[in-house]
Amino acid sequence: MLHTFRKGGVHPPESKLTASEKIVPVELPREVVITFAQHIGAPAKCELKKGDHVNRGDLVAAAGGFVSANVHASISGTVTKIDKYKTALGIPVDTVTITADEEDHKRDIEAIAALKPLRSDEEIAALDSKALVAIIDGAGIVGLGGATFPTKVKLSPPPGSTAEVLIINAVECEPYLTNDHALMLECPDEIIAGVQLLMKAAGVERAIIGIEANKGNAIDLLTAKAAAADSRIEVMGLKVKYPQGGEKQLIDATIGKEVPSGALPIATGAIVQNVATAYAVYEAVKFGKPLIERVVTVTGPSVAKPGNYRAAIGINMKELIDVAGGVPADTGKIILGGPMMGKSVVQIDAPTVKGTSGILMLPEKEAVRNKVEPCIRCASCVSACPMGLEPYLISTLSRLGRWEEVEEAKVMNCIECGCCSFICPSTRPILDFIRLGKTTVGGIIRARQQK
User: Fold this and answer.
1) Which contiguous run of DSSP H or E holds residue 212?
2) How many other CB atoms are there within 10 angstroms of residue 92's CB atom?
3) Helix or strand or coil: residue 339?
4) Which of 160, 185, 230, 333 is 20 to 30 A off residue 434, Cα-Cα?
5) Which residues are paired to 211 by β-bridges?
6) Which of the four pLDDT bands, split at 50, 70 and 90, describes residue 82?
7) Residue 179 — φ and ψ, nearest 5°?
């Protein structure tokens, strides 16, 4: 029996062009740009100065608060710059540039080839929850599904909250993206071990790995691995429906509970972690490896070598795109992430970050918006909204700047999934105005709380 969430949802074309592509390691770059704010929360604080030499895995910037994350060097080399650098979205951020010479590069390659466990299975078994959370914190691990919420924060629920179940998000419902799917097929044992570590860190005796039915081979493989390793871990097949991978939707689909408005997921007794995050936790605990690389899907209908590439965090996007054959001549838009929730870039001369799950290059004919027509009051957006909101109303109120009413319409509950814009027969920019409203109202709420 396949499970799913109760409210709304849509079925965009899956376009999983790289579903059968194995993970391809990308050669370590000779230069990386490491940003200090590649997670939700406070930016990390730089620990280096120009001219310092760092080794691969060394701390570059320390967490700037509880909701923050450490940042590490993904290559060995010398700090050649500490300055502002524009992200792919055109936003100036604080960064460190690390440049490797031939000796640095050679030493990194040799170290990767000779990588050995830092801890034995017995030593890992002896670690308690507090020690595991400390390791995860030290490794700078964040949610790798796109939100980049610091993992240690989710594993430290507020007083009065009790975790009962760990839910592993292996849904990957965004069209085109296949990095999680590829990781499940290549590293199932490591993922199961990572799930067990997260269960211990969270203090729970039950885990559910939710996977959409279009990844049948991953469901079968992880089901077999979980059955052999730990009876407390259940692999649950889910219907193919977007946004199945939304945290609140996944909780509803797997344990049948809805997160109350304004509450955290822990209110349902659930802690949700991405499947790639589970893998990163395994690497941190077993090998002492911080989060310095990840799998990125580089894809698009006209891309010469679309695939799932394991790349150092901080590698230049252009360099990664070149590995996939370069930007196709017919490209009309390049998107970070998938087409539903991703954002179009303004430049590719920019570093990748922990949250870079995909780089999608869409042809011009697929990147152009259709003409906006008047709203026909069909309420399709209401039916499609997985949060039970009235998107047409929130969008209109935002366009008119009626912020009190926007707040009353529960704009802050919007997860920005894009179902409303996708389903709209008049191709209205519903989500665009909702995002405007959410940003504005969020600022108003913060200002009100500070008084």
Assistant:
1) strand 207-212
2) 10
3) coil
4) 333
5) 237
6) very high
7) -65, -40
pLDDT above 80 (res 343): yes
Of the candidates 63, 94, 60, 93, the residue with the CA atom closest to the CA atom of residue 77: 60
Whole-number Å distance between alpha carbons of 76 and 58: 8
Pair of tokens at residue 362: 């869409």
Which pair of structure tokens corresponds to residue 371?
Answer: 């003409």
3-state secondary structure 241-301: CECCCCHHHHHHHHHCCCCCCCCCHHHHCEEEEEHHHHHHHHHHHHHCCCCCEEEEEEECC
CB contact set of 119 (below 8 Å; sequence gap of 6+): 127, 285, 286, 288
pTM above 0.85, yes or no: yes
Residues 6+ apart with CB under 8 A from 73: 32, 34, 54, 55, 56, 57, 58, 59, 60, 98, 292
Q: Measure Cα distances from 110 to 23, 28, 73, 103 in Å.
A: 21, 12, 17, 11
| Distance from chain centroid for Cα 96 | 22
Query: Over the stretch 282-341, which tens digit does the pLDDT of each residue have?
Result: 999 999 999 999 999 999 999 999 999 999 999 999 999 999 999 999 999 999 999 999
Cα 74 from Cα 61, distance rounded (Å): 12
Mean pLDDT value across the chain? 97
Instruction: Give the residue among 220, 202, 100, 195 at the shortest CA–CA distance from 153.
Output: 202
Written as six digits, the tokens of 377 are 């009051």
d(CA 242, CA 418): 10
Compute the distance between CA of residue 88 and CA of residue 343 in angstroms, rounded to an integer. 10
Q: What are phi and psi of 266, to 5 degrees?
A: -65, -15
pLDDT band at residue 146 under the 50/70/90 scheme: confident
**Residue 13: is the preceding peptide bond cis (ω within 30°)?**
no
Distance of CA 451 to the CA centre of its chain: 34
Contact 352, 320 (CB under 8 A): yes
Radius of gyration of the chain (CA): 22
pLDDT of residue 262: 87
- Please report which helix (H) or strand (E) contains residue 178, including its range: none
Q: What gap in Å lies between CA 257 and CA 266, rounded to an integer?
A: 11
Q: Are 345 and 312 in contact, with CB atoms under 8 Å apart?
A: no
CA 195 vs CA 169, 180, 182, 205, 365: distances in Å = 11, 15, 17, 11, 42
Say whether pLDDT at 200 is over 90: yes
